[in-house]
Amino acid sequence: MAEQETPRLPPLLEYPAKGIQSQLPPEEWQACLEFWIASVQLRLGMSEDQLSKSSPQTTTVPFLFSYFSNHGFVAAGATLGSKEAQLFKQSYGLLRKLLTMRNSQIRADTYFELLVSGSSAYSRLVSWKKLLKSIWTSHQIQLRKAIESAKVSLATSTTYQAQITLLQNISTLTRSLPETATVTVASADYIDTLTQLFRTGVLDITRAVTENIFYSFIALLENKHITILTDNIYHMKSEADRLRKSKPESTSLLSSLLCTTSFLRHFSSNSEVATRKQPLVEQLNSYRQETLHLHALPQKHRRKKGKQRAPKEDGMHMHMAAQVSQVHELFPDLSTGYILKVLDYYSDNVENVIGALLEPDSLPKELQDQNVPNPEPHFENDLLDLPPRSTPPLPLMPPDVVDNDDFDSLRISSKQIRRGKKDITAAEPTAGDEHARSKAAIISALAAFDSDDDERDDTYDVADVGGAVDNTVDTDERRQPETDANEAALFKTWKENPELFARDSKTRASNIRQQLKRETGMGDEQIEGWAIMLGKDKRTQDRLQDKYSAARAFGGQQKALQSTKWQASASTENSETESGPERSNDSRRMGQEGIRGHRNFGRGRGRGGSTAGPSDDAATQAARRRKEQGRGRGGANNRRDARAKKVGRGMGPLPPS
C-alpha cells in the first residue's frame, strides 16, 4: 500500500496586532478570520504524522504565538457563534494537538512558551488544567526538558527584562500546573539563582522573584511535598541569617516572602505542618516580626472616579449579582456572561437554571457551548431618577408639666431666680418650713460636735484588732530572753520523727538524741516529758504549727494575740479569793480543763462583786478585772458612736444660740 501523501497546506499567517485590526475595514477583517478558521480546521483534520512532517514550527507555532501575544484571547468575550469565538476555540484544539504529539519536533524552549501562552489564554477553562495533568502523565520527560530549559535560560540571561519575563512565565505555568514546582525548586541551585536575582535590588525583579517563589511553595504545599518545601525554607533561612549578620537592615528573599505575601498563613494552617513542623512555624513567625519594618505594607488601591456622576451602566443590579453568585457557588468554571444569558433564558429563576446546568443535555442549542463566556449586560440604575417629594411635617411634641408656668410665660421676678442650690441656714429659715428648720439645727449640732473630745480612739490597736498590721514587730534577729529557745528545735524534731522522743534505752543512746540534748541543753526526761505534754495538748500543736510551719515567711516572731473575751469557769471563781501566784496556777488549770471539756459558765448565787467596793477586797478586784474584759473590742467606741447618733437625730441638747 502506498504511503499516504502529506496534503499541501495553505500558509497560516500571523495574527496582527490590535492597532492593525482597528485599521482594517470590517469586510476585510471578517475575510481574514474566515481564512484563519479554514487553515486551522485543515490542520486539525490531519494526523499527527502528517502534521509533524508539515514543519509546524514554520507557520503553525508562530501563528499561535502571535494570536496569544496580540490579545487574541479577548475573543473569549465575543458573542456565541461569532467568528472570533470560533477561532478562539479552534486555536485551543490546535494547541492541544501540538502539545500531545508523540513524535513532536518542537524544541524544548518553544514547547515551554506554548505551555505558558496556553496558560495565559485558557487558565479559566477546567479542560485546560486537565490537559496539563494528562501531559504531565504521558509526556513527563518532554515537559521536564521544557521546564529545565527555562531554568537554564534564567540562569544565563543577562538583561533584566528577559529575567522578569522568564520568572513571570514560570509563575504562570506553576499556577496552572502545580507539578512544575517539583522541577524548579527541587534543586538548591534554583533557589540560589532567585537569591542572587533578589539581591540586585531592582524593584521589578524583586517582585517577580517573590511572586515566583510564593507560587512554587504553594504548589508544593498543595501536592503535599512537605519535605522538599521545608528543606528549601531551611536553606533560605540560613542564607538570611548569614546576610543579617553582615547587613542587619537589608531585606532577604525569605523576609520578602513572609512579610509581603500570605505564605506563612497557608503554611501554618496545613495539618501536617502544624503536627510535625510547629517549631519551624514559630521561627518563621519570629523572623517575620523582626523584619516586618523593612518592608512597606501594600497600600490599598483606590479607584479614581472623579467628581462627576458615575454612568448608569457602570454596575450590575444587586439582585442579579446575588443570583449570579448563587450559580457560581455550584459551577465556578462558568463565566459570568454565560450565567447571565442562562438566567435571562429561564426568566431569572435560579432553581430552573441550576437544574438545567446539572443536565447539560436539556439545554437548548444556543446554550450548549459553555466555554465561550457571554458579555455582561449592563443595567440602568433607576435610583438616580427619584421623584421629588415634599418635606414631611414635624412630629407633634408631647405636652410637658411645666408648660404655661411662670418661667414659660416670663412672669417670674428676677429676685426669685438663683443659680445652683439654695443655701439653708438656721438663722433665716423659710417661713412655715419646719423641716428646713429642723435640718439646719441638726447640721449645726454636727458641725459643733468634736469627735476627739470623748475618749481615746483604740479602734486600730494591735492587741484588739487581729486584722491590723502590727508595726511593732521586732525585726531584730537576736534572740530575746523571753523567747523559748528550745521550742523551735524540739517542735521541728518532733514534727519530722516523733519516735525520737521514745523512752527506751536504744533511742536515748542514738546520735540524734545526743545531738538534740547538746543543742537544747535538756536531759532525756525533760525532752520526753515535753513530747508527752505536747501530744496531749492539741491546741498547743496547732499554735506551734502556725508559728513554725512557713519557715521562709515566719521565724517564730509573730505575736500570739490573746482573746479579750471573758470566760468564766470553776477555776476562775475559785481563784477570786486567792493570791496572784495561786491565781495564775488556777488559770493554767482552767486552760487544761477547757481542753478536756469541763467548762462552767456563770457563778453561784451570792458570789457577786462590785467595782465600788474596797480596793483591798479580792471580790472588788475581780469585778474590776471582769469589767475591763467585758468591754471587749470597741466597747467604748460603740458607746461613743451611739451618743453621736442620738445627737444627730436631735435627741440631745441643742447648742446655745
Automatic annotation (TrEMBL):
A Pfam family matched in the record: CUE
Membrane-traversing stretches: none
Compositionally biased intervals (Low complexity): 568-578
Residue span, CUE domain: 319-363
Composition bias, Basic residues: 597-606
Basic and acidic residues bias: start-end ranges: 580-591
UniProt-annotated stretches for the region Disordered: 553-657
GO molecular function: ubiquitin binding
Official protein name in the record: CUE domain-containing protein
Annotated source species: Knufia fluminis
Source organism phylogeny: Eukaryota, Fungi, Dikarya, Ascomycota, Pezizomycotina
